[in-house]
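Sat 14:20. Reprocessing the chain from the morning session after the first attempt stalled halfway. Input below, unchanged.
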Amino acid sequence: MTGRISSAVVIAAIVAALGAGAVLRNPAAAQQTEIPADVWSGDRAMDDIAALLKFTPRSIGAPGHQQTIDYIESQLAKTPFSAVARQRWTFRGDDGAGHAMTNLVARLNPSNPRRVIVATHYDSIVRAYADSKDPDGPMPGANNSASGVAMLLETARALGRLPSPAVGIDMIFFDGEEGPKSLGAGDPRWFAIGSPYFTAHLSDFYPDRKPESGVDFDMVCYRALQLKPELSSVLYAGTQTVKFWSIGATNAPDVFLRTPTPYPISDDHTALTAAGIPSLLVIDFEYDPWFNTTQDTIDKCSAASLGAVGRTLLHYLYQQ
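Finished this time. Tokens:
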């Protein structure tokens, strides 16, 4: 007997905790900060999605890519996250071509040694490869990329209306999550670019101490949103996942389900966890028939869905 606990046992224990509705809280933080229901606005987040769709396509090298960067920075300038660092480098693919890449890092209370990462990706796929009628058409990406950006921007605005949480928060907008060909799951050799680069240069932002945890958002605006705990998050960030889903299931039980995904999903949280920052992914990956098609448009999104996730994130951050 090795004394090791199998991943199946760990998953079973966490699933049991989720099923029991366990909530891990910091009672002092919960009592100290009252969060009004209307401080996080799903309507404002929908406005962000509408603005981002004007820049389609937002893939690497497209004009909309830089326009998206400019929009994110312009919105953060109105919040306490106004100081934004651009982490820039050149990525070279198999063909040797260079691609200009930019991660955006915005910090709240940068002197606080306790840090939590809140992340998303802002790049979109270059074309709607999964569209049976128009596979070469532009992919709007209302859900697949714009929704995560909207989630972070509205959270930044909300935090500007509230007292500072007990932790410092780093909002990271990753570039290149859709991979070197900007086709996401349509590229059989897909891998994220921006988040591994960030973790390879972690000491540039965290010279003394790594962040305590991370939360990554992707595809969170669907009008029929149903979020399952993502399997690798359950296994490698179990405490954080139980806490987040317990808060969510209390506030929006129709959105936050308690049964994990049947398979792990690779996203930007994967690199964070591999770097020793336990991180969870919040995603509704079951988005057919619109996933990566020309029909990933704003009419598939809902202010109510965005608000359910955004308010859960606020409560989660204040319970650190």
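Strands lie at 84-92, 98-108, 115-121, 168-174, 213-218, 279-283.
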